[in-house]
Amino acid sequence: MKFLKSVIHEMKIVTWPTAKENRRDSITVIATAIFFALFLGGIDWLIQTGLAFLAK
User: Whole-angstrom Cα distance, residue 44 to residue 36?
Assistant: First the structure.
């Protein structure tokens, strides 16, 4: 019971992000994921092309 009271107390003093902050952070995460997907896809394509060239 003491644990639950402690959790409730802590949850009352947490500063929750606003909707604007949530949106900004979500956009940042999605943009970063897209960037790295494209970057790593490009690196993969370059390596495959290079290996195919060397295999000829």
Answer: 12
d(CA 47, CA 56): 14
Q: What is the pTM of this model?
A: 0.70
- Are the beta carbons of 55 and 47 closer than 8 angstroms? no
For residue 15, pLDDT over 90 is answered with yes
State the residue for tokens 């790295």: 36
Give the separation between CA 56 and CA 49, rounded to whole angstroms.
Answer: 11
CA angle at residue 16 from 28 to 1, to 5 degrees? 135
State the Cα angle at 21 between 6 and 27, rounded to 5°: 125
